[in-house]
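[recover] target loaded
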């Protein structure tokens, strides 16, 4: 069953779940300590967190009073925090490595363009020097512009994921029956 969103204060995300299993994948039967987080749950939390640019203070999960178990809640709280922190680190690492790769390839392209400029000004007109000029000039332009464009667009594309996991990694997870 999909979580039901409840009205919340400005810095809280509040969701109604029928049972703890609503937070986890239906196909994963492992214990709560290692079970996969439900895509439906994450999608709902993501949608609510993007509605506000503010920091999320609390993720409040409402359950029926008779369905609550304090031991399970402690395990689930740790599991959710670990999930949010692990994904935050994953996206930060991915962003850093992609930026590094894009900058290195742009520098390679720039050096190819400088080499082509040097070859052009050297006055040597052997066939192999001309072939190098023909190869280096467009390849250099291609590497510079494609990787700079990728650097700009990939940062813009991954920003919402980074912001989501940053918000949720800092929030407090609270279980309540109202």
């Amino acid at each position: 069953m999909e979580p039901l969103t409840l009205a919340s204060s400005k810095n809280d995300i509040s969701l109604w779940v029928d049972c703890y299993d609503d937070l986890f994948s239906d196909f994963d039967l492992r214990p709560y300590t290692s079970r996969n987080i439900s895509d439906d749950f994450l999608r709902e939390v993501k949608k609510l967190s993007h509605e506000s640019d503010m920091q999320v203070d609390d993720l409040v999960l409402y359950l029926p009073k008779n369905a609550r178990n304090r031991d399970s809640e402690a395990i689930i709280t740790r599991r959710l925090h670990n999930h949010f922190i692990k994904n935050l680190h994953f996206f930060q690492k991915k962003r850093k490595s992609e930026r590094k790769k894009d900058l290195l390839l742009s520098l390679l392209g720039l050096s190819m363009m400088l080499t082509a400029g040097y070859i052009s000004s050297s006055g040597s007109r052997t066939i192999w020097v001309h072939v190098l000029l023909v190869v280096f000039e467009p390849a250099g332009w291609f590497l510079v512009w494609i990787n700079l464009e990728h650097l700009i667009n990939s940062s813009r594309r991954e920003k919402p994921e980074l912001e989501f996991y940053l918000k949720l990694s800092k929030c407090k997870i609270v279980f309540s029956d109202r």
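[recover] notes: The chain has a mean pLDDT of 88.
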